[in-house]
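Thread: assembly with ligand

MN 10:42: here's the input set. Chains plus the small molecule as SMILES. Want everything predicted jointly, not piecewise.
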Amino acid sequence: MWALKTAIFLQILCSFCFLGLHSKTQKQYNFVVKEAQYTRLCSTKRILTVNGKFPGPVISAYQGDTVYVNVYNRGTHNITLHWHGVKQPRNPWTDGPEYITQCPIKPGGKFIQKIIFSTEEGTLWWHAHSDWSRATVHGAIIVYPKKNRAYPFPKPHAEVPIVFGEWWKNDVRKVYTEFVTNGGLPRKPDAITINGQPGDLHPCSKSGTFKVNVDRGKTYLLRIVNAAMNLILFFSISKHNLTVVGADGSYTKPLTRDYIAISPGQTIDALLYANQEPNQYYMAARAYSSAPAIRLDNTPTTAILQYNGNYPPISSPPLPYLPYYNDTQAAFNFFGSLRGLPSKYHETVPLNVSTHIETTLSINTFPCPKGHPCKGPNGTHFAASINNISFVLPSIDILKAYYYHINGVYIKGFPTFPPFLFNFTAEYFPSELQIPKKGTKVIVLNYGSVVELVFQGTNLVGGIDHPMHLHGYNFHVVGHGFGNFDKDKDPMKYNLINPPLLNTVAVPKNGWTTIRFKATNPGVWLMHCHLERHIAWGMETVFIVKNGRGSNETLPPPPPYMPRC
Ligand SMILES: *[C@@H]1O[C@H](CO)[C@@H](O)[C@H](O)[C@H]1NC(C)=O
Ligand SMILES: *[C@@H]1O[C@H](CO)[C@@H](O)[C@H](O)[C@H]1NC(C)=O
Ligand SMILES: *[C@@H]1O[C@H](CO)[C@@H](O)[C@H](O)[C@H]1NC(C)=O
Ligand SMILES: *[C@@H]1O[C@H](CO)[C@@H](O)[C@H](O)[C@H]1NC(C)=O
Ligand SMILES: *[C@@H]1O[C@H](CO)[C@@H](O)[C@H](O)[C@H]1NC(C)=O
Ligand SMILES: *[C@@H]1O[C@H](CO)[C@@H](O)[C@H](O)[C@H]1NC(C)=O
Ligand SMILES: *[C@@H]1O[C@H](CO)[C@@H](O)[C@H](O)[C@H]1NC(C)=O
Ligand SMILES: *[C@@H]1O[C@H](CO)[C@@H](O)[C@H](O)[C@H]1NC(C)=O
Ligand SMILES: [Cu+2]
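BT 11:07: finished. Tokens for the full assembly:
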């Protein structure tokens, strides 16, 4: 009893301080999805949250744990939750994407979601996976090494989650329905947030600015999550470097930089050495936006690194260096410098490729339905596609249809090669090329296939970077480059020794990226661009990985309490 009271007291005491390692792991969580009132940027609105918190609660576990989350929908709309980067071996049933692996949890409904951690270690995150609810329904997942096991770096003194988000003064649901209806671009957000706060440089925000208190001489582990909807971000700390030691729940070779770049969906573990004069320093984030049409205003979002001790308070801490908003080189110089930490910490790159897939990632347009003026380019309706297929969500989930052999929900035979070859990164195209096909097509893989997948960005309608995310797997990022992928020359430059093992990778604007993974997780797994406007326009597809031989390679039946359509 005493221990329980102390634990509850410590949890309350520590819910804002974020300090202490291995502080609290739980095997069960209650997540109540409900509205709560928040004031930001001088205006107040109701937002959808988990347990009233923005960002939502942290899930903590040890490597290899299984955790249950009881999700209660006390909101007014359908919702699903996804555990981003958790591979969920043989358990797509509670992975979360709406109409891919489950039907939504309706208002008043409940769903017990099992999260099976396996090899993941480091920082991951969870988020809503229906329409744009994830704007405010998200939080960090921390996976500690098993008890008695060490980090592959000196143990930090404390850890600090840094969760980036985007804030609209408008109702996010309205922002969503508006752009999917009018066919144009979504309204831009009013600010980027760090742990829910826009920071000192934004109106009515100074009192809430997130602060990290540090002791000089100590080392801190920043657990960084980019939960923003549509923005790749640069992040840096005045007068301090960051040493990246993990990404997407896998350790990396330490990489010391004065800034990082992080795409929506990605997570980064970085060490911060508090080795400067005791003072206050700004931590700042700003968007990298390579397409002029979606450029944000330049005001950085800030938090404060605050040394403990006696020093005269500084009126305005210095801002750190941040690359320019259109600095593609700076973004890909960082992304391209990440290296894995193979052997002991994660599997090595599969060399024996059995299934080679090439895909184009394109922004497209559909003609506007008659009588509905559209706000896309030249009065069209924006769309997006992979291999010229703009994905259409079915009305019951693909996993159920696959498991119970229900016809008419999806079609096999998603093209594994671009249907039409052209200069993908040219300046101009005949306008017929830009209209894609609609479909619910999936790629079927045999159990154990070694997949090599090339993502080729195109300049159709407008080239832009695409952070591609795969559910149920990690993948090795073996190469990337600008321009058209060259099947003869580019594979010679692949890194098959120590590429990073990620679950989300930014494919460069008008460039390509190659990943590899071994299909040893049977089930139905979504792959999509993690820019929310692109997924809304159809930039997604699904892998169905067939069963292997033994029961340990076979998809088990669903839990009896799956939400119904
Ligand atoms: C940051 O790293 C660079 C390159 O490794 C080094 O030259 C510089 O001194 C470091 N700065 C700090 C504040 O540690
Ligand atoms: C970035 O934008 C600036 C001014 O807006 C321009 O001068 C510069 O050429 C741009 N750089 C790239 C790589 O597009
Ligand atoms: C490579 O894969 C093929 C079938 O895909 C298999 O027959 C062969 O044994 C594999 N080779 C190695 C070295 O794993
Ligand atoms: C594709 O178009 C770009 C832009 O015009 C050009 O720089 C490039 O050389 C072209 N590539 C090929 C393979 O023709
Ligand atoms: C996509 O498919 C449509 C319909 O068949 C076709 O008109 C268009 O040219 C295709 N575009 C590309 C890039 O393959
Ligand atoms: C819009 O129309 C103009 C003029 O016909 C054309 O040059 C341009 O390529 C079109 N843009 C798109 C995205 O369709
Ligand atoms: C399943 O069990 C068989 C036989 O014990 C083993 O060879 C195989 O590696 C196992 N597969 C997985 C995915 O654990
Ligand atoms: C909520 O989900 C149910 C079950 O799939 C569906 O029938 C209903 O149309 C959904 N409601 C909305 C507003 O999308
Ligand atoms: Cu995209």
